[in-house]
């Protein structure tokens, strides 16, 4: 399938500006490049009813969070902060992508705002610890701590504790899937839904899509292996389902899911395999495959209209699950 014209324009822009591949950089340099691309690739962040920076306790100290409430939710909050008071809303706990090495609250501010507005709900983004300074399972531990906090503090945050979902893109989708497995096994409050956007599900890195996407894209097989090496340096640990949820003995009993995958993505086959396993093992799942898209397009919405389309479809899946569109 040919690449979407907008995605092709992004690739052309990368070549024109001489953007180096992530795997050729040190982690700190890669973070700077990733941060610098935000203003170029993403549309202007939309206004929301409330943006509130928070912290929660974590296993290695405080974890930064950012709480959004969508426009029209009647919170009385402002762009510069607030108490979060207002009607109890459903909430999406959002875990950003970036291969567990790059990304932060700012890198995914725009899609989090969009999801808050599109759902008319709350979104809480998590600034989990990054590798290689904090390797596996640090990100999992921080994500779990954030979910416990949101559930415990739901009343203070204006969140309905019975309608909490988890989600994320790429590495964040990996963490969201892991949280749902942990919850299924009784070690976390159970989220009611999981939103997995081109997720990493198997650190084996040996699917056919790894063989197809080898050069010329923001995420190639080589780049993904660079991320994996930083996150889980010990190959034996990559079989742990907390790193590779596709390797869990069973997916039965986890939360219903929305899974999106992209054709020009080394992660395509493992994301498809995860959606199929969910279906086969009795979990309600909607799978959206964009054959003409590449990994990372959700944060390239200035050039790629499919970013907004996918966020609308993801938000519709959340609203339907939360019963927000019922008469």
UniProtKB/TrEMBL annotation:
It holds the Pfam family Abhydrolase_3. GO terms for molecular function: hydrolase activity. The keyword Hydrolase applies. Keywords: Hydrolase. The keyword Hydrolase applies. Residues 92-298 form the Alpha/beta hydrolase fold-3 domain. PANTHER family: AB HYDROLASE SUPERFAMILY PROTEIN C4A8.06C, ALPHA_BETA HYDROLASE FOLD-3 DOMAIN-CONTAINING PROTEIN-RELATED. Belongs to the 'GDXG' lipolytic enzyme family. This is Alpha/beta hydrolase. It comes from Teichococcus rhizosphaerae.
């Amino acid at each position: 399938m040919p690449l979407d014209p907008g995605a092709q324009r992004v690739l052309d822009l990368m070549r024109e500006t001489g953007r180096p591949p992530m795997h050729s950089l040190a982690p700190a340099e890669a973070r700077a490049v990733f941060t610098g691309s935000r203003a170029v690739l993403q549309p202007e962040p939309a206004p929301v009813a409330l943006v509130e920076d928070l912290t929660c306790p974590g296993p290695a100290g405080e974890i930064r969070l950012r709480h959004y409430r969508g426009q029209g939710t009647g919170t009385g909050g402002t762009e510069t902060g607030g108490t979060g008071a207002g009607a109890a809303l459903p909430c999406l706990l959002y875990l950003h992508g970036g291969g567990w090495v790059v990304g932060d609250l700012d890198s995914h501010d725009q899609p989090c705002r969009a999801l808050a507005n599109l759902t008319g709900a709350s979104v809480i983004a998590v600034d989990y610890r990054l590798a290689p300074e904090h390797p596996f399972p640090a990100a999992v531990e921080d994500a779990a701590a954030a979910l416990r906090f949101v559930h415990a503090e739901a009343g203070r945050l204006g969140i309905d504790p019975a309608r909490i979902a988890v989600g994320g893109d790429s590495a964040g989708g990996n963490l969201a899937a892991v949280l749902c497995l942990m919850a299924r096994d009784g070690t976390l409050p159970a989220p009611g839904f999981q939103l997995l956007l081109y997720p990493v599900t198997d650190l084996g890195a040996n699917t056919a899509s790894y063989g197809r996407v080898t050069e010329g894209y923001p995420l190639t097989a080589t780049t993904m292996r660079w991320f994996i090496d930083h996150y889980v340096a010990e190959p034996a640990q990559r079989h742990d389902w907390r790193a590779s949820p596709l390797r869990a003995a069973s997916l039965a009993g986890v939360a219903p899911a929305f899974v999106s995958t992209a054709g020009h993505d080394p992660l395509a086959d493992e994301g498809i395999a995860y959606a199929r396993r969910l279906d086969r093992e009795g979990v309600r799942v909607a799978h959206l495959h964009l054959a003409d898209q590449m990994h990372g397009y959700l944060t390239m919405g200035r050039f790629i209209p499919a970013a907004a389309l996918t966020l609308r479809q993801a938000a519709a899946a959340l609203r339907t699950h939360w019963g927000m569109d019922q008469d």
